[in-house]
C-alpha cells in the first residue's frame, strides 16, 4: 500500500510540463500573527494565538524556505513550544500550467524525536484570476508519526477583480497506516482518532497597506471527542481563525 502512495504522489507531476524558464520570485521575509495556527483542519498551537516568521530564498530553480511558528506547548507535538519547517521546492511553469516537487522537514524545538519528513508533488492551472491546484504530501513510515501518512488536497483561489480581496478554499484527505514504527498513539498526531479523515478550509484575505488581513473557517470530518492519547487535543472541530501578515 505504501508503494502505491509513493506512485500517486509522483503521478501528480508525471504529465511533463514543456521546458520553460523557471519563474522564481526573489527573497522574501514575512511575519504573521494568527488567533490559531491551523494545519489540515487541526490546531498546531493548542488552540491559542501563534506567531510565525517565514523566509524564502531562490537558489537557481529551487526555492529554499524556512518557517518558524510558536506552538504554545502543543500537546499534538509532545509539548513543543516552537515548530520549524525547512523546505526545498522546485516549480516548473509553462503558460498557465505549473508542476512542482519538494520536501519538507518538520522539526520541533527540544522534541527532536518527533521530527518527521514529507515529500511533496503539485500541479496547477491559472485561468484569469482563478488559480486551481492539486497536491499530495507523503510522509514515509517514520517512528515520529507511528507509520506513514498521505495528504491529498484540491484547492482554488481567486482575486476579486477591482478589489484588494482574495478568496480561497480547499478540501483535503489524510490517509495513513498507524501500525508500524511504534503504533497508533503517535499516528494520532496527524490523524486524531487514528483513522482517515477529510478537512476543508474557506477563507478570504484583504490587503491593507503593508498588511494582509485574513480570516478562514476550517473543519474536519472527525467526530469529537476523539479517543485521548498523549498526542491528541480537543481542537479538531470547526473553527474560525484570523491572521495578520506583514511582508518585509
TrEMBL record:
Keywords: Signal. The keyword Signal applies. Residues 1-21 form the signal peptide. InterPro entries: CHP02001, Porin_dom_sf. This is MipA/OmpV family protein.
Amino acid at each position: 500500500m505504501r508503494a502505491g502512495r509513493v506512485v500517486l504522489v509522483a503521478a501528480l507531476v508525471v504529465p511533463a510540463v514543456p521546458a520553460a524558464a523557471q519563474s522564481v520570485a526573489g527573497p522574501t521575509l514575512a511575519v504573521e500573527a494568527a488567533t490559531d495556527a491551523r494545519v489540515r483542519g487541526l490546531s498546531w498551537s493548542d488552540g491559542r494565538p501563534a506567531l510565525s516568521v517565514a523566509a524564502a530564498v531562490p537558489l537557481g530553480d529551487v526555492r529554499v524556505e524556512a518557517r518558524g511558528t510558536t506552538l504554545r506547548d502543543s500537546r499534538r507535538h509532545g509539548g513543543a513550544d516552537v515548530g520549524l519547517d525547512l523546505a526545498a521546492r522546485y516549480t516548473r511553469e509553462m503558460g498557465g500550467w505549473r508542476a512542482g516537487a519538494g520536501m519538507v522537514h518538520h522539526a520541533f524545538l527540544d522534541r527532536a524525536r518527533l521530527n518527521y519528513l514529507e515529500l511533496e508533488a503539485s500541479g496547477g492551472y491559472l485561468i484569469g484570476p482563478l488559480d486551481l491546484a492539486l497536491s499530495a504530501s507523503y510522509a514515509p513510515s517514520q517512528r515520529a508519526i507511528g507509520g506513514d501518512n498521505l495528504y491529498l488536497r484540491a484547492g482554488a483561489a481567486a482575486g476579486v477583480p477591482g478589489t484588494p480581496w482574495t478568496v480561497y478554499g480547499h478540501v483535503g484527505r489524510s490517509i495513513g497506516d498507524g501500525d508500524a514504527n511504534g503504533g497508533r498513539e503517535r499516528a494520532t498526531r496527524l490523524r486524531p482518532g487514528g483513522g482517515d479523515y477529510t478537512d476543508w478550509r474557506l477563507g478570504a484575505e484583504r490587503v491593507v497597506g503593508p498588511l494582509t488581513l485574513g480570516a478562514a473557517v476550517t473543519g474536519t470530518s472527525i467526530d469529537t471527542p476523539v479517543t485521548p492519547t498523549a498526542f491528541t487535543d480537543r481542537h479538531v472541530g470547526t473553527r474560525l481563525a484570523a491572521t495578520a501578515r506583514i511582508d518585509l
